[in-house]
């Protein structure tokens, strides 16, 4: 990958200390999600359930915006000494802290499905933002208890805002530098017109998926289910895992579980049913040619948008 500030901070021996921190926190996060019944919490925090979009970046926007509003109100107070600003500042900071807790939980949930330097950068970003949140909590506590003499809490808040600008940036580098959470099917060219695959329909065995290159860099996972031929994208939208090597799950084994981080997709609709993936797979129509070859083309609105 191209060299970025974040990558320079974490690569090689320099970033080894982050592995120990990541190991400890990964144990906590992974351990929690191994508790039976926690799957819906995980899916909500990834954004797979309810939002149907990554939750963490939606919350971080609110958090960074909230801290920035607090910084502006604090500077205004320092300039004007207008006590009418104090109540508003406290409310904005309290609400921002509440959202920050959700942001931290969703961030660690997403982070625990990363590896390598991406994981190192993620734990640096996450640990720093967690400490910053504690610092803002302290700032609020001082503000509420200090009456009009708030200068220490205000200067603490302004210092933290500078740290927010630095360490939130590292979270952005995870997405823009490493591609964390970016839909791995975003640039694939799903065939919009019928395309013949190098696959005979009678070679398919029931519920034994196969991966077939369909041209233009797009690979389909084709599965025969009770006589019907179903096809979705073969690369997991989360991080590109090979879905054709995944396990078929669900009551009728009509869903596929990614072998890398356990996202589950419907074979019928391509929908992401469980995270960490939040984006659906392209879903394809299938038919069998007169010669017995399987043919596919994009189905549905979402696939049509990416179709060629
Ligand atoms: S690549 Fe992560 S769940 Fe599939």
Helical content band: 40-55%
pLDDT < 50 runs, ≥5 residues: 301-308
Name the ligand types: FE2/S2 (inorganic) cluster
How far apart lie the N and C ends?
A: 28 Å
Number of strands: 10
Q: How would you describe what is shown here?
A:
- The chain is of the alpha+beta class and 308 residues long.
- It folds into 2 domains: 5-178; 195-306, Rieske [2Fe-2S] iron-sulphur domain (Rieske Iron-sulfur Protein, 3-layer Sandwich).
- 49% of the residues lie in helices and 16% in strands.
- The chain is built from 8 helices and 10 strands.
- The chain has helices spanning 5-10, 16-33, 39-46, 55-80, 84-111, 116-146, 151-178, 300-306; strands at 195-200, 210-213, 219-225, 228-233, 247-249, 255-257, 264-266, 272-274, 283-288, 293-299.
- Strands 1-10-9-4-3-2 form a 6-stranded antiparallel beta sheet. It has a 4-stranded antiparallel beta sheet with strand order 5-6-7-8.
- Strand 3 (219-225) and strand 4 (228-233) form a beta hairpin.
- The longest helix has 31 residues, at 116-146.
- 39% of the residues are buried.
- Mean pLDDT is 93; it is low at 301-308.
- Residues 113, 236, 238-241, 258, 260-263, 276-277 line the site of FE2/S2 (inorganic) cluster (FES).
Question: What are the main properties of this structure?
Answer:
49% helix, 16% strand, Rieske Iron-sulfur Protein, binds FE2/S2 (inorganic) cluster, 308 residues, disordered C terminus, 10 strands, four-stranded antiparallel sheet, elongated
Layout of helices and strands, plus pairs?
Blueprint lengths: L4 H6 L5 H18 L5 H8 L8 H26 L3 H28 L4 H31 L4 H28 L16 E6 L9 E4 L5 E7 L2 E6 L13 E3 L5 E3 L6 E3 L5 E3 L8 E6 L4 E7 H7 L2
Antiparallel strand pairs: 1-10, 2-3, 3-4, 4-9, 5-6, 6-7, 7-8, 9-10
């Amino acid at each position: 990958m191209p060299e970025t500030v974040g990558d320079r901070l974490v690569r090689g021996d320099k970033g080894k200390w982050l592995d120990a921190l990541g190991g400890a926190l990964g144990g906590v996060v992974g351990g929690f999600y191994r508790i039976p019944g926690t799957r819906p919490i995980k899916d909500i925090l990834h954004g797979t359930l309810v939002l149907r979009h990554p939750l963490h970046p939606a919350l971080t926007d609110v958090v960074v915006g909230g801290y920035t509003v607090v910084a502006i109100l604090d500077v205004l107070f320092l300039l004007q000494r207008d006590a009418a600003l104090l109540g508003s500042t406290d409310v904005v900071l309290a609400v921002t802290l509440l959202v920050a807790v959700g942001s931290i939980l969703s961030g660690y949930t997403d982070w625990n499905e990363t590896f390598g330097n991406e994981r190192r950068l993620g734990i640096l970003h996450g640990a720093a933002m967690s400490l910053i949140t504690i610092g803002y909590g302290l700032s609020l506590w001082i503000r509420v208890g200090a009456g009009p003499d708030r200068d220490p809490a205000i200067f603490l808040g302004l210092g933290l805002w500078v740290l927010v600008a630095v360490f939130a940036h590292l979270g952005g580098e995870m997405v823009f530098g490493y591609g964390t959470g970016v839909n791995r099917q975003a640039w694939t060219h799903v065939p919009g017109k019928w395309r013949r695959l190098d696959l005979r329909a009678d070679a398919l065995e029931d519920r034994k998926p196969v991966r077939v290159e369909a041209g233009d860099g797009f690979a389909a996972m084709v599965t025969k289910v009770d006589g019907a031929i179903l096809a979705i994208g073969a690369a997991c939208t989360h991080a590109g895992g090979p879905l054709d090597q995944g396990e078929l799950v669900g009551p009728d084994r009509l869903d596929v579980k990614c072998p890398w981080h356990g996202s589950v997709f419907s074979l019928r609709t391509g929908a992401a049913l469980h995270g960490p993936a939040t984006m659906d797979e392209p879903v394809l129509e299938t038919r069998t040619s007169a010669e017995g070859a399987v043919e596919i083309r994009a189905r549905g609105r979402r696939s049509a948008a990416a179709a060629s």
